[in-house]
Task: inverse folding
């Protein structure tokens, strides 16, 4: 069978116009006690190469346990078949506790073997990392949280300094970028703000109508919808919409600039990324959020009007007059203040996560997700704080 295989290989080599020298290996011992593996011939995939089982048999028969080294003085050509043999031999020596040295191999083989050995080391590092103690994990998370907090405080400080330069007229950014950002944060957001605000108004009206209809007080649905939308719901829904739409876009844009090293280029040119990239985005969103909030309030009231006219048999005049009596200017200013704060928080969260983005595509996705989560959490916390302050102040 072996001679038949040899004849087939020789005939195939002749057909390909190539004559491979047989790939062989032999064993010997050095005076220092090393086991020398001599590799000779052409170690090619097209040529039949010895298997690692031959080395294992030699180790068992000879009782060899010393260090294994190589002699490749008679090695002619090689390809991946030699690498496969060496990888299997390294696994065998690792199982038997035998030291394997690659000093006698060609330089190209050494480099490839080092590259092949890098993957198991990373896997081992992952396994070792997974076995960390609980206190080690808590400590690592605490350090990461501390560094993130320091970066956030630094970002806030730089943002306030940039706003100060803007108020003094010394900020360096392109006015055309600011106008474009105003359009992106305002006009392009109207469709989704309209849809969500109308639906929120409908929901508030339905919930109120179910209870108020039991007491014959359907007209007070206008109070529920008007006060709810103008005081808080319009601002909250607009803030959440802008967090998922614009805040994520800011993080993705600046994160992509980090990946492409555009921010490093701006720093090299002496241009502040905080003023050139972050400041116009923050200013645009802070300016547009109160306007979007007013628009959302109007759409929510119209949604409640649809329910009042279609379900409660209220006239448009009755509904609008009741809404005008219920909604005061104080409620309107509270809602606008909410929206301005939400706009600042969404813009800062998006730009912060974008500036913290890593240098890979996956890092951009993580920064985008983190920007949305951070914005929504900040909106909820800010709502609670402002509501508590309004309760203390009696407004």
Result:
């Amino acid at each position: 069978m072996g001679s038949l295989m040899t004849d087939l290989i020789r005939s195939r080599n002749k057909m390909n116009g190539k004559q491979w020298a047989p790939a062989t290996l032999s064993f010997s011992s050095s005076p220092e006690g090393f086991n020398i593996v001599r590799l000779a011939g052409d170690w090619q995939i097209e040529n039949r190469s010895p298997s690692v089982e031959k080395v294992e048999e030699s180790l068992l028969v000879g009782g060899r346990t010393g260090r294994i080294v190589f002699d490749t003085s008679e090695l002619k050509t090689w390809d991946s078949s030699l690498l496969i043999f060496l990888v299997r031999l390294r696994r065998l020596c690792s199982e038997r506790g035998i030291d394997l040295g690659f000093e006698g191999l060609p330089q190209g083989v050494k480099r490839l073997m080092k590259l092949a050995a890098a993957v198991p080391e990373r896997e081992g590092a992952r396994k070792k990392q997974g076995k960390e103690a609980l206190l080690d994990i808590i400590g690592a998370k605490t350090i990461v949280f501390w560094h993130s907090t320091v970066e956030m405080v630094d970002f806030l400080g730089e943002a306030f300094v940039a706003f100060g330069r803007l108020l003094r007229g010394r900020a360096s950014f392109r006015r055309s970028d600011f106008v474009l950002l105003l359009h992106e944060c305002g006009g392009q957001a109207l469709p989704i703000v309209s849809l969500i605000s109308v639906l929120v108004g409908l929901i508030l009206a339905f919930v109120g109508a179910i209870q108020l209809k039991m007491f014959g007080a359907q007209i007070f649905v206008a109070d529920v919808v008007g006060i709810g939308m103008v005081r808080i719901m319009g601002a909250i829904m607009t803030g959440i919409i802008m967090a998922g739409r614009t805040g994520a876009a800011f993080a993705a844009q600046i994160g992509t600039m980090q990946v492409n090293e555009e921010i490093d280029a701006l720093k090299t040119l002496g241009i502040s990324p905080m003023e050139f990239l972050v400041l116009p985005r923050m200013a645009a969103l802070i300016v547009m959020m109160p306007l979007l909030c007013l628009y959302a309030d109007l759409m929510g009231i119209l949604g409640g009007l649809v329910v009042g006219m279609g379900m409660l048999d209220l006239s448009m005049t009755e509904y609008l007059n009741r809404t005008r009596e219920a909604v005061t200017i104080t409620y309107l200013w509270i809602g606008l203040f909410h929206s301005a704060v939400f706009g600042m928080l969404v813009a800062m969260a998006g730009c912060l996560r974008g500036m913290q983005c890593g240098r890979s595509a996956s890092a951009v996705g993580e920064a985008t997700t983190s920007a949305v989560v951070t914005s929504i959490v900040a909106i909820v916390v800010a709502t609670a704080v402002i509501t508590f302050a309004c309760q203390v102040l009696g407004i």
